[in-house]
Amino acid sequence: MAADDAALDGATDQARTTRGRSVAERGVWRGRSLAWRIGVSVVVLAVLVAAVVAAALVTEVDDDNAAAPGLPASPEVRAPGLLAVSEDAPMPDPAALARVLAPLADSAEVGELAGRVVDDATGQVLWERDPDKPKVPASTTKLLTALAALTQLPADKRVDTVVARGSDPTTLVVIPGGDPTMSRGSESGPLFPGSATVVELADIVRGAGFTPARIVVAPGPYMGPGLGPGWSRGEIASGNLAPIEPWMLDGGRMDPADEYSPRYPEPALAAGRILARQLGVDPETVRVSAEPVETGEELGKVSSADLVERVRSMLVHSDNVLAEAVCREVALSRHPDQKADFAAGATAVTDTLTELGMDLSGVRLDDCSGMSAGNRIPARVLTDVLRVASGPDASREMRDLLDTLPIASGSGTLVDRFDGPSGAGAGWVRAKTGTLSGTSALAGTVTSVDGRPMSFALLSTGTDPAIARPVLDQIAAELRTCGCR
Question: What positions carry a catalytic annotation?
Fold first, then answer.
């Protein structure tokens, strides 16, 4: 964005220089995994195509800003399909699998490791270590958020942002519905395919023949503080989060082309000012109201992408802001007469999963994204979530969870992982990553060489995530290569 825009929107030079790494050092691979809908009772991953990316690629940073060093060679992109499992596919022998995993699980690199591996078809536990111990889950928390959303909400659910005339005939009122994905440009941004755009919103106003003198952003359906329990304001400049407000552009990023761009400290105000420039309104007249705003004629609305696409963006890019917005959607669906805050979102997620019959013993959620170090989830619960999505009784909506996970060496936060000793997992592992200080997590699904699908969860604490991460990848890769019969 232009320098004068940054000044108007409250950006500072300091925020721009505290990213941790430059765009060139960290970069983003913008590819998306292909979408398949699953119509079978149990699914596995099968590599169909391996193509070299022709465009210039750079390394994507794992969630929570754990940067990977250097610029790697262009990776191969695996395009997996989701196919029916053969009834004859043999299940690994737990004792044989334990012998294979023991050296990795016992290594000092993973610190204190809790984990579980489950056969998707039968639910039989194939391997586990402290599966009931509550551990810091980091961004694997988003798996619970995703399943709750796909269970509680229609797959095609969209979030609306409305514009209306104010009671003062010269005022335009923006009425947020809780969409942080709107693009500041004329097309959907690279991180949120199918999103509405601020240009579309401005076109509605212009099409109504309305020339406002000022803009007011109404409170919308959220309440409470913008930062979650234990969140640091320093993470705003680092690009990991923005204060959770019911309207923002590009997840609150100052630079929508940079996934790890610093974010706005007042994202709704920044969005209103960008809309003002579209309409030729002085940005200094934009106000965000904490109180209900009286409105007149509704001029129109724009809508977000559907729920499945937003869940895909949330998981593939591990977007913390979008995760908090999605869980508030769940809360508002369950309690439409109430506004939502962090506690309401977390409660809505756990209540929805409990109603599915899941045992959430040991779960504590302070937020829905995993940014809070106060969250606790046992490995057992993570594999239960994954198996709900992959087991014989899963609905199509639940199965969308598997389709929205990052692909090893193929997309999102796994694009630059699963090479070297863990290379056998490339294309065959779909998993959610998680990184906080002293914590590294990986939870997802993998198919053995014999065609047997498994859900797994690995939670490592007490060690450097950069050291633990390759070992976790290798464990997942061993699940792929070990027939273990």
Answer: 139, 142, 318
